[in-house]
Amino acid sequence: MEKKILLSESEMPRHWYNIIAHMPNQPAPPMDPSTGQPAAPEKLARIFAPQLLEQEMGQGGAYIEIPEEVFDTYRIWRPAPLIRATELEKLLDTPAKIYYKYEGVSPAGSHKPNTAIPQVYYNKLNGIKRIATETGAGQWGTSIAFATQRFGLESIIYMVKVSYEQKPYRKAMMEMWGGKVIPSPSTTTACGRAMLAEDPDSNGSLGGAISEALEDTLSREDTRYCLGSVLNHVALHQTIVGEESIKQMEKAGDYPDIVIGCAGGGSNLAGIAFPYIRENMLSARKTEIIAVEPTACPTLTKGTYTYDFGDVAQLTPQLKMYTLGSKFMPAGIHAGGLRYHGMSPLVSQLYHEGYMKAEAYNQLECFEAAAMFVRTEGILPAPESSHAIKAAIVQALKAKEEGTSKTILFNLSGHGHFDIASYEKYFQGELIAYEHPEAEIAKSLGR
Amino acid sequence: MEKKILLSESEMPRHWYNIIAHMPNQPAPPMDPSTGQPAAPEKLARIFAPQLLEQEMGQGGAYIEIPEEVFDTYRIWRPAPLIRATELEKLLDTPAKIYYKYEGVSPAGSHKPNTAIPQVYYNKLNGIKRIATETGAGQWGTSIAFATQRFGLESIIYMVKVSYEQKPYRKAMMEMWGGKVIPSPSTTTACGRAMLAEDPDSNGSLGGAISEALEDTLSREDTRYCLGSVLNHVALHQTIVGEESIKQMEKAGDYPDIVIGCAGGGSNLAGIAFPYIRENMLSARKTEIIAVEPTACPTLTKGTYTYDFGDVAQLTPQLKMYTLGSKFMPAGIHAGGLRYHGMSPLVSQLYHEGYMKAEAYNQLECFEAAAMFVRTEGILPAPESSHAIKAAIVQALKAKEEGTSKTILFNLSGHGHFDIASYEKYFQGELIAYEHPEAEIAKSLGR
């Protein structure tokens, strides 16, 4: 048996999967809090390219053709390998078969370019010259910089100031690809100046950076905004991950009993899981889908399913989703990409309707799983992805206990080459677990 | 056409290529300066496993079977992809076809594990419990840590103190794989203590670290020493790179007119080039082989072909090789892996006998080439590997000027994810070129 199950480029799926077309209950629309009505399309059109808005609304059928130029760019690193975790299996001495889809092979080192590329492409088609976005730890900003460089657009990236200062390497990657990186809060925007007036030493926040990127977008006709997770069209683009994996599992003569993804905004989970939910819906398949979140930010497992804002500053439309409250401030865990109060509305609804389960693990358990993984499989995972590894190990050990063979697939959404400072702290015993912050969640949700 | 030419694991070559079997003139033996005679095998046997010594002496025929356990470990990341640099070709607007073999997919991020794995494996076969080695920037130490973890041995890695302090991430990677990392000079060995007595604030040097690792090895019966480049058995293990690439070029329906590798100690160049030199020797092929070195350390292009020590402290046997003199101290360029005064004796002899050419480029040209590469191909190269990229670009532009189509293959020996600080300095204009240091070379060689 081959350890790595590879697809040739000619075998790469030519479509994304639009799960909305198959959902028995249509998603609740985004709401404009000022009117109490669904957000007006013309308002959104000032922010997003029309093709992306159509995708956001679930139009175009179940299979959306990947445009030729996007497909051509995907070929730089896709199809991504599916790898049998043979060495981890041996360590666990489990009858389970563990596979992982490895998205760390992309230029940015994670799944994020899967959506950055089409988002920038559609904007280019519409004559847009400039993309404004925000980034926390830098994964998303790196992906947008790569995509804008590729299609000849400019990018302006508002990077949370504390990350800008602590993560100069990510900033250097963005600049290498021509991205203009501005620490947020900045003096470039009115809301940045207001934040600075209030606190000149502000560390910044993702919410604040979103506000700056949105203001920047609205201030220039040639500019549009891009978001790296949460939204329906982002989840759509990520389904290339799951679609490829289905073909690869077929090559391996196998099919997963369990599919696992970590969930922050929900896009990498959606990417691996939605095609398997389709198979569950349309065929006799009964694959168990597990969303994994940090105990420090347990949106699905401890949050509420309701309309809430996507950002701290409450500038976005309200989305129907699981949320810990838009003012919830998660502890400073090292899986920065999972520190989000809300959850993709599609993932939220599918979870609410019973199409998937959710589990939460603390960061010590996850770093321990990551250490087991790098010592066996040789790949250093991103701290976010380590949550999926932890859940896969739990399932593999359960299979061992029960003496049943299970086929487990998880999404290894990125590598951890830029997170080694976090690993150092873990190995030096400087990290703490951060269990479920019940009181803070209750307070944030006004319970 | 596929951009990435992949091999399945079942297509991976089952042998290394021992070029000594085909060389018309047999290599000159290592000399013991104390006797003026070839170094006694029993002295070397205290340092290296007997299988490795046999390989060092070129025994066993032209094709050495890769042991099953080594092959199994290679499968964690091998076969490595061969990639057509389509996007770089477009930028250069060249009729040349450019391919690169990408060794950055290994656990350590470079070609080094190709030899760390068999070296540790053979030592394990001989009941050795512990490996001592040295590392400069950390690539080699990382590879040895991964290999010893894999086979259940201990490793002790003497890391040049200035790197130990400046590159905590590499150190963390070694420790993650169970490596014991000691800054050199250390108080662990007599020669370390002597260096510290002379200069308590010593930054350390690779020569000093080699001396400490050798002393450590000789002081413990359960310990052997491993070296990451220069030696014949190291070059042998690296030929998996070239052998795979031949199969991949065949799949692409192509064959290289030019094969390029950067050269520090010479092992990654040997790995990609030796199988093509075989084809040149045994068939009508006329592939041009180009070794690329930094102008700051121009061993082949400006050095002398003579017997010299492998280390600054002059503890090793003398090897017949191109050298800048064992006391030559190269400028602090950011391609740390190319800062070596000597050159693989096999590469040296083949160059001397006309089987390959050599070129030198300065670090600004090479960083510029790396920037072009990451902007088109999406992979951030190690500064060492950028020398091969630069030479490939030169050849592609020459083909354009001449209006001829050439097929160019180079070895992209590693990624630059741990070298971003160097890239930052480059983009901020803080690096200098370091041209050929003629006067220093003359002085070092006693001319």
Secondary structure elements and pairings:
Two copies of one chain form a homodimer.
Chain A: E1 4-5, E2 15-17, E3 31-32, E4 37-38, H1 41-45, H2 50-56, E5 63-65, H3 68-74, E6 82-84, H4 86-92, E7 97-102, H5 113-125, E8 130-135, H6 139-151, E9 154-160, H7 161-166, H8 168-176, E10 180-184, H9 190-198, H10 206-219, E11 223-225, H11 232-251, E12 258-262, H12 267-282, E13 288-294, H13 299-302, E14 304-309, E15 318-323, H14 345-352, E16 357-361, H15 363-377, H16 385-402, E17 407-412, H17 420-427, H18 438-444
Parallel strand pairs in A: 7-17, 8-9, 8-11, 9-10, 12-13, 12-17, 13-16
Antiparallel strand pairs in A: 1-6, 2-5, 3-4, 6-7, 14-15
Helix pairs in contact in A: 2-11, 3-5, 4-15, 5-6, 6-8, 9-10, 11-12, 15-16
Quick synopsis:
Two copies of one chain form a homodimer. Chain A is of the alpha/beta class and 447 residues long.
Question: What report would you give on this structure?
Answer:
- The structure is a homodimer of 447-residue chains.
- With 447 residues, the first copy, chain A, is of the alpha/beta class.
- The first copy, chain A, has two domains: 15-59 and 112-225, 3-Layer(aba) Sandwich (Rossmann fold); 77-109 and 239-444, 3-Layer(aba) Sandwich (Rossmann fold), CATH 3.40.50.1100.
- Helix content of chain A is 42%, strand content 17%.
- The longest helix of chain A is centred in the middle third of the chain and has 20 residues, at 232-251.
- The interface between A and B is large, with 39 and 39 residues.
